[in-house]
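This section describes the prediction task in plain terms. A model, or a person checking by hand, is given the sequence of a single protein chain and must write out its three-dimensional structure as a string of tokens. No templates, partner chains or ligands are provided. The sample shown here is typical of the held-out split.
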Amino acid sequence: MKTSNVLKLLALLLIVIFSFSKVKKTKPKATLNFEKINIVQILSEQEFECRPSAELTFYVESTLVKKFRGYSTINATVFALNRFSGESSLLANENIIVPFHKDAVLHYDKTKSDCEKTILTNGDRIVGSQINTKYCFNELIKHEVIYNSYIRSTNKLLDIQRIF
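The expected answer:
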């Protein structure tokens, strides 16, 4: 009987303690204005730092546009995420051809775009996009953070194993 009374007293004590404590909701710090931030400069600084920025995270999302014999066309979108507020901003959006083999013959439609159409180091071709963004994909992909996120995203989408 004594143990049941002790448990009842302990439960009552815990209820009393937690009933008088208040949960405070903290507001996130001021949001970043993505229009005023120079993203390329932040990415350049991150390459030489030991730790990534505590404020921003960069990630790439990719979706399958069309699958052909010998290659796939994907849409890669680069986002910047404010870690404090959870707000994300679109930085770049391009259609990219991912060949299955190194010397594959590619027939594709070129899209009008303000950005330069280049071939990436892994053989992927930037075709263009109809969405105009502040930054071009080929200038952001030069940075290791964006490139690794792009490879990780396309590997998951196409179920292939490409190394970073």
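For orientation: The mean pLDDT is 80.
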